[in-house]
Amino acid sequence: MKKFVGKISIILALAVLGSSAGAAVASAAVAPRGAARGVTTVTLNQGTINAVVGLGLTPAPVSPGVLGMDGADLKAAFPIVGNMKAGLVKHTGGLSLTAGSTVLALTNYTIDTGKGVLTAMATLNGSEVGRIVLFKLGAAPSQTGCAATASLALSSDAAGALTAIFGAPDLTGAPFGTACVAPR
Predict the structure, then answer these.
(1) Which are the contacts of 136, defined by CB distance < 8 A and separation ≥ 6?
(2) Residue 112's closest CA among 104, 120, 124?
(3) Is 37 buried (19+), middle (13-18) or exposed (0-12) by CB count in 10 A?
(4) What number of other Cβ atoms are within 10 A of residue 80's Cβ?
(5) pTM to 2 decimals?
(6) What confidence tens digit (pLDDT) does each residue in 28-68 have?
(7) Burial class for 75, CB neighbours closer than 10 Å (0-12, 13-18, 19+)
(8) Residues facing 80 on adjacent strands
(9) Which of 88, 97, 98 is closest to 118 using CA atoms?
(10) 175: which residues sit within 8 A by CB, 6+ positions away?
């Protein structure tokens, strides 16, 4: 029953996101016109997403990022942009979390393979906060079509921000999902 309620929460959250989120996530769906150099797709951890939705937070994609169901999996995908130099993989788009009139947008992700982190530009209610360490990268099984894979665990900085902004419990280390980096 608990698993069923969790899936219903995700479906309801996606319904709120609008018709663009309902589309299946695929590389072609997120590749913008122009300078995209591939895509990073994240298969989201349903337990963590259930916890986020259970806190009254509504996740939404920030274009050109997308969020949607791919079969039974909830996935988010973000175009890779720029040249991949010095172990940095830069992205455009992102995700936002909304509760009432409070909106936290996390965009322009950068994977830093040297430091083992994923950073994001944080914006709160339209005002830029700055770049934060969003996730710590960990080992993940390789996947077909991925040049690299990594598990994503919520950093203490990000967890602290969720607590300060939304009153969330300490989610440091919560498994967010598994990233598949597929440059072209």
Answers:
(1) 116, 117, 152, 153, 155, 173
(2) 120
(3) middle
(4) 23
(5) 0.82
(6) 454 444 567 999 999 999 999 998 899 999 999 999 999 99
(7) buried
(8) 91
(9) 88
(10) 45, 47, 48, 151, 152, 153
Residues 23, 28: Cα–Cα separation, whole Å: 12
Please name which of 89, 134, 140, 87 lies closest in space to residue 114, comparing C-alpha atoms.
87
Q: Which residue has the tokens 């996101």?
A: 17
Pull the structure tokens for residue 61. Answer: 């994609």
How many whole angstroms separate alpha carbon 54 and alpha carbon 91? 28
CA 67 to CA 15: how far, in whole Å?
A: 11
Spatial CA neighbour of 140 closest among 47, 58, 43, 63: 43
Q: How high is the pLDDT of residue 152?
A: 98
First and final C-alpha spacing in the chain: 42
Could you read off the pLDDT of 106-148 as tens digits, one per residue? 999 999 999 999 999 999 999 999 999 999 999 999 999 999 9
At residue 84, what is the residue type? M
137/152 Cα distance (integer angstroms)? 5
Spatial contact of 17 and 24, defined as CB atoms under 8 Å apart? no
